[in-house]
Amino acid sequence: MTAELKEMADLLVVENFVNSLGDFKGAKVFHVDGGVSTAVYRLNKSGEVFYLRLGSGGENASSEVLAHKLMSERGVKVPQILVWEDENKMIGRSFMITSEIRGGRIDEDKMAKVDTYREAGRQLALINSIPLGKFGWIDRQEKDAGKLEGRCGSWKDFALDMDNFAAMLADLTAVGVWGEGEVAKILKYVDARSDLINCTQGFLAHGDFCPVHIYSEQGRYSGIIDFGDIRVTSQFHDLGHYYTYARKSFYDLLAGYREINDLGENYMEKIKFEALVFGIGKMWWVAKNLPGQLKTRKYVMRVVGEETRI
Asked: How many structural domains is the chain composed of?
């Protein structure tokens, strides 16, 4: 079966499933590029737009539902979850249907101004102020999850396993990204700063925070979407991710963030360190899963080059 035929078959299954849900019967269903971790469909019914997100790999929906609840209680503008199940028998996986966040990605809104980004920063600070247990990827195996918790005992266990870090660099060297001398510089840089982020408390992180997931409408911030990659980590992780992807608007977003959380001493060094650790991990993932796109990942090289003076 070709990829096109498979997509059509999948869409038919989803349409039948949506029609089985009374409130959404008759909705027109369109596949949306939901990235790597989540399958997403747009539902149009009676002039309203909703989004169906399908889980994968036995992962529950209730963890993400709980994350939305905690964020909403803090005043974060996120989609409202209308219906969900951890394991639906008809489709054999978890799902949730959410309301629409109006507008579109912030970097495509020509009316977006400095304070649009600052408001997004304020909202991110509220997300990153939600304390959770342990560190790492949210454990999403338990049905009807009553808490959000990572799988690692410390930030270093999750983000800075040096043996794993060195192995990723070796893999990237093998495909010609760097030479051995450059890798030595990176390892020296990271080792010298391994105690820079020594947090004992983990916080909720979006995990994929970039302009794609921040929405605004006619210059007004409207919300944040897509929490399929939530994790427990330091308060510098999401900022490091954004710094990697969107340097141009980063400092406006950071200004808003620091109105809520000033981040303490050496915050830029910590953000850049998180950006470097994340960037190399992301580049390794691309090399393994999407090797044809490896040459386009210049954002990682930019972070590595700036922070290690390579």
From this structure: 2
In angstroms, what CA-CA distances link 58 with 7, 53, 135? 21, 14, 21
Per the structure, the complete domain to which residue 79 belongs is given by 3-99
Last residue of a domain, one of 84, 99, 114: 99
Check which CATH number belongs to the domain holding 254 and give it.
3.90.1200.10
Query: Are 54 and 164 contained in the same domain?
Result: no
The pLDDT tens digits for 246-283 are 999 999 999 999 999 999 999 999 999 999 998 888 88
**Taking the mean position of all CA atoms in its chain, how far away is CA 283?**
15
Here the tokens at position 105 are 């990605």
Number of C-beta neighbours around residue 66 at 10 A:
19
Question: What is the number of other CB atoms lying within 10 angstroms of the CB of residue 74?
Answer: 15
Evaluate if pTM is beyond 0.70: yes
H/E stretch holding 249: helix 247-260
3-state helix, strand, coil split of the chain in percent (to 5) is 45, 20, 35
What torsion do the CA atoms of 40, 143, 209, 295 make, to the nearest 10 degrees?
-70
The last residue of one of the domains, among 68, 99, 130, is 99
Q: What is the distance between the alpha carbons of residues 231 and 208, in angstroms, rounded to a whole number?
A: 10
- What backbone torsions phi and psi does residue 195 show, to the nearest 5 degrees? -100, 10
